[in-house]
Amino acid sequence: MVRLAFTALLFAFATSLAAPARRAMVVHEQRELPAHFASAGVPSPDTPLTLKIALTANDRDGLEQRALDVSTPGNILYGQHLSFEEAKSFAAPPSARVSAVSAWLNENGVADITTSGAFGQWIGFTTTISTANALFDADFQNFTEVGGPTQLTRTLAYSIPADLQQHINLVYPTTDFVRKISGGPKFQSFKSVSKTARALAAPSSCNSTVTPACVMDLYGIPITPATEASNKLGVSGFSEQWPQTADLKSFLEEFRPDTSPSTTFTVIDIDAGEDPQSPSDAGSEANIDVQYSVGIATNVPVTFYSVGSDNPDGILGFEDIINDMLAEAAPPHVLTTSYLFDEDEFTPDLANQFCDNYMAAGARGVSILFASGDGGVAGTTDASCSFFIPTFPSTCPWVTSVGAVQSVPETGAYFSAGGYSNLFSRPSYQTTALANYLTITNLTTNATYEGKFSTTGRGFPDVAAQGFNLEIVNAGETILVGGTSCSSPIFTSVIALINDRLVAAGNSPLGFLNPFLYANPGSFFDITTGSNPGCDTDGFSAAVGWDPVTGLGTPNFESLLAAALAAAA
Q1: Inside any domain, residue 87
Q2: What domain count does the chain have?
Q3: Do the strands 141-145 and 37-39 form a parallel or antiparallel pair, or are they unpaired?
């Protein structure tokens, strides 16, 4: 018996040497189950689970400061955008950080670790549910979207080692509950609304249907062709939406007969994206984005990023597309995206991870524009809501959010999503504009609105453009569409043409737009009527100056161009 006890003691001692001591753990993220999801049972312990860890950047605050410096008119660094290697020096995690987190994973039997992201900021691995639960003090379960198609395996809380906190931004996917992507044009009839005066004239026919000619007349956009081949315009494509070259040819023949009908776009495939070209593959969303980019930004090279369904980022390719762009030696100077999510589907850490990518793009000289959404103050949902629902990425302070107007004279479109972020605080470039709106409308003292929105959050949209009854060609037929999906490519085209003039004059493109836009409020047609109802309220109302329906207003091309040239000088 003594011999057996001694042997057992030796075994226990050897085991203690082989197994690493468990590190002190701290809760990193936790949340309650969102109302639009329900539990769907516990997965088998040996179910495979692929996870990624976002590592903290070498100098995130330094990158933020540089992005602001190169984007703020009057700063000595204005327009001096970063190369990929310069951005990487700020955004990449130090090698010691990668080694520290990898060593912890190796200690716990996790091998085959991979790195991803434009700056190597993610490390990924595949393990089992049981190992992940033990590794992160988590409780991964299956969840299903109530009344929807989304099925997820998530945990409501997870922990990380206390000594690795400074190295880890987040673990993904864990506490996020991101639903199927939202976006696409609106086909239903629009409500009639009152009208307000504007500065430029447009044909009366633009009240019933909007064409490129209407848009160019309204905003003073010239038909003069762009000249700089380096000045590219990017269009994001998701959800099996594909633009058709035949539809674009017909669109140009009908609505821009002064341009060559052979003008087309190039395609970059991401995540096994495709480019099918038959009438049955026509996507109205993709056709809107491409036709109103090619049709307004005359002769600006257009690139369509076709994002497939094989998404390593786990969020429908939203991060993959920006990572691919960030890694390009010469990315497009401006990117428009007409898809979005509700902000509350993202945890603060995940939203910040996305937003930092857009910050890096701005530092590199890329303008990132997003449609604000078509649900008024109710986000992407048509259901009743007790609190206003902001949309994301529109609420990221490093993107330019585009709302919608309709009719001639223009008024705020009732569907134009706008409001205030619950995750991001008010950026400095918005301080005056947002304070003025709250003062004018007295919303902070209105009992109806009490507690429904954050009075200190980042406001959106930033700008607006036509988004009602636009004519496009889809599958060979001319149809009418509407939504902020129309507005974003229109405003993006304005920026692309201004960039062309800047580059032709030997200057840098605008890059991150918002400090420049808010510094020049007089370069917009101010929209003072219209509202965006939702959540059993009238929503917000348009007003003099910035408002959360139409932002600063719609673009006055000549005034914005003059301001851009002056800032560059």
Answers
A1: no
A2: 1
A3: antiparallel
Does 551 reside within a domain?
yes
Do residues 415 and 532 lie in contact, with contact meaning Cβ atoms separated by under 8 Å? yes
User: Coil, strand, or helix at residue 561?
Assistant: helix
Q: For 420-471, how does the pLDDT look when each residue is reduced to its tens digit (9 = 90+)?
A: 999 999 999 999 999 999 999 988 788 888 889 999 999 999 999 999 999 9
- End-to-end Cα spacing for the chain: 91
The span from the CA of 186 to the CA of 418, in Å, is 17
CA distance 512 to 366: 6
How far apart are the C-alpha atoms of 154 and 173, rounded to whole Å? 7
Q: 252 is in which domain, residue-wise?
A: 230-568
The catalytic residue among 416, 454, 485, 523 is 485
Which CATH number characterizes residue 260's domain?
A: 3.40.50.200
69 annotated as ligand-binding = no
Residues with Cβ within 8 Å of residue 19, at least 6 apart in sequence: none
- Residue 547 known to bind ligand: yes
Q: What percent of the chain is modeled with pLDDT above 90?
A: 79
Give the SS3 label for residue 261.
coil
pLDDT reported for residue 448: 84
Cβ atoms of residues 40 and 153 within 8 Å: no
- Separation in Å, CA 261 to CA 257, 268, 303, 465, 489: 8, 22, 17, 25, 20
Query: Which stretches of 39-116 are DSSP H helices?
Result: 60-71, 84-91, 95-107
- Give the Cα separation of 85 and 97 in Å (integer): 19
Residue 168 lies in a domain: no
Q: Which of 29, 64, 228, 289 is catalytic?
A: 289
d(CA 406, CA 469): 8
Model pTM score: 0.91
Report the alpha-carbon distance of residue 324 to residue 339 in Å, rounded.
Answer: 18
Q: Is 59 annotated as a binding residue?
A: no
Statement: residue 5 has pLDDT above 80: no
Rounded to an integer, the average pLDDT of 214-226 is: 96
Q: What is the mean pLDDT of residues 22-50?
A: 93
Known catalytic membership, residue 485: yes
Q: 184 near 45, Cβ under 8 Å? A: no
Q: Is 162 contained in some domain?
A: no
CA distance 36 to 510: 40
Specify whether the CB–CB gap between 177 and 152 falls below 8 A. yes
**Catalytic pick among 64, 285, 313, 319:** 285
Sorted by sequence, the CB contacts under 8 Å of residue 546 that are 6+ apart come out as: 430, 433, 434, 436, 437, 459, 518, 521, 552
Residue 396, φ and ψ in degrees, nearest 5: -65, 130
Kindly give the pairing relationship between strand 524-525 and strand 554-555: antiparallel
Query: Cα–Cα distance between 129 and 132 in angstroms, integer?
Result: 5
Question: Which residue shows structure tokens 């057996």?
Answer: 4
Q: Is 345 an annotated catalytic residue? A: no
Query: Is 551 labeled as ligand-binding?
Result: no
How remote is the C-alpha of 202 from its chain's centroid? Answer: 32
pLDDT tens, position by position, 42-71: 999 999 999 999 999 999 999 999 999 999
- Is 46 a residue of the active site? no
**Distance of CA 23 to CAs 35, 96, 107, Å?**
34, 19, 11
Dist. CA 226–CA 289, nearest whole Å: 19
